[in-house]
Amino acid sequence: MCGIIGYLGERPAAPILLEGLRRLEYRGYDSAGLAVFAGDRLRVEKRAGKVAGLEDAIGNGFPSSNCGIAHTRWATHGPPNRANAHPHLSAAKDIALVHNGIIESAARQRPLLRDRGFHFRSETDTEVLVHLIDLAFRECALLEDAVAAALARIEGSYGIAVVSLRDPGKIVAARKGSPVLLGLGATGDLVVASDPAAVVAHTQRVLRLRDGDSAVLDSGGHRTFDLARRSVRRGFQTVAWDVDAIGKGGHDHFMYKEILEQPASLRDATRGRLLEEEGIARLGGMADVDLKGVRRIVITACGTSWHAGLIGARMIEEMARIPVAAEYASEFRYRNPVLDRGTLVLGISQSGETADTLAALREARRRGCRIMGIVNVVGSSIAAETDFGVYLHAGPEIGVASTKSFSSQVVALALFTLHLARQRNMSLPEGRTLVRAIAGLPALVEEALAVDAQVRALAERYRNAPNFLYLGRGYQFPVALEGALKLKEVSYIHAEGYPAAEMKHGPIALIDEEMPVVVLAPRDPVYEKTLSNIEEVRARGGRVIAVVNDRSSAVIDRVDDAIEVPSTLPALMPVLTAAPLQLLAYHVAVMRGCDVDQPRNLAKSVTVE
Ligand code: AGP
Questions:
Q1: How much is the pTM?
Q2: How far is the C-alpha of 479 from the C-alpha of 476, rounded, in Å?
Q3: Quick check: 36 and 11 in contact, CB under 8 A?
Q4: Which of 39, 227, 547, 608 is deepest in the core (most CB within 10 A)?
Q5: What is the pLDDT of residue 303?
């Protein structure tokens, strides 16, 4: 995904746009650029690479104009060079456009525009749209009319902000599939941006455009329009967190801060939701939802959220006795799944904007299913489009690697499981036991994080290993997948997560003295089996790092290192066993000099399919 921002107010736009880009940089950091009005021209500056490079290029020498737009890019069409950086300009350089999304009709429209004399300076899909606006402007006087006419001619997703010398002092924004919101500052300043991170420094009151909406920002204030271009009023909401929540809180990296925040984020996930006496979960977003007709659940998600989904699937089947499948959203959508009205499709997403997950949910709805979301970002597309759901309340997660959102997702799934199970077969004592266990997690994860110094020492020892293997069974298998994903994405070390027992069917061939094998081995119903798998690794000379919850267990004598975390119910243990693996990935990455918060090639949320 990319980040867009626009500013119109009384202050110089460039510093505000650059500050906003820094806040949005986690959305993409391949290139950055901005455009502001400068008398009778648009002053544009763009650079490949991070926002810091753009700031250096601009220095203090930028016009003190009070209106402009800016962009930070995660490349989809064309490499991350200066030519492909946004803003994209019309031939006469009098229209500038920033865009988050994909113009799917671009390949078809490029030659048609070339035939009409348009010359392309970039390889991006976005440039098609700026030329279409240029073309439409020949027939109308207002920028919003030209933008609307151009958008009517394209297919794809967009969150855009546009400025033009032909209708100066105005920003036109529009969204379809990619988020756009407006912030109204105390002095009447207007900020338009892809997410609240770019706005909260000015105001916590935001207006979220709905799909198909557009907005005009000018000296008269702001006006919003729906798909049919009727004037509509969209209400302002208050963002629940402030600018401090998107700082590093004194740490070197967001990832580390967010790992350490887990006791607090889990408290927020459970606050007001657990009723111990009744042994139930009270979920505001599900209060009036009748789940009696649910005969089957399909969980769909990507990456870390899918790993949480695998844990949730197991929990729901075990405790609520409903069949559940957890599927990659990108696969689910294209395989003609058997779905009926008794199937509840549950999308899990931190950002609420992941294109594959959103598309899978839309497909499920098209086929008549009810759709539900477990989402962190309030007001995001998945939150808005699902029939009901559960928010994580984890606060903003800025580090590209998901950490606190994973544990909050597991907890949200546990709450949902409790909610479902108590309506079905779960007894009051069982309900109370689960409530107490969930309520105890914030304190236990705090204890689990106390292994930080030990994990840092392990990271020092293994930082140069070329490969890692992560093994787990049952509830711990998804944790093995998650541990491996964390390590690869932030440290660039190849790592594989595997069901411990499956190792002997292939990956065991990889094991030698060079191979660190991280085994999730808490005491749970498959503990004895996991011990056997550890023996298999040891017999081949592998170096075993075990995550355990019982130092007196036999495992301690059989491994090179044991990391001890506290104990809870097996279904909730992933929250505790994942924490040291997050720390391991973090410390290894720092020691290898990697860009922990913004790993190469990645973006916080992937809004393309
Ligand atoms: C994991 O660390 C990554 N950030 C990635 O796998 C992520 O979980 C995935 O892209 C899904 O994102 P979402 O939760 O915002 O939908």
A1: 0.88
A2: 5
A3: no
A4: 547
A5: 97
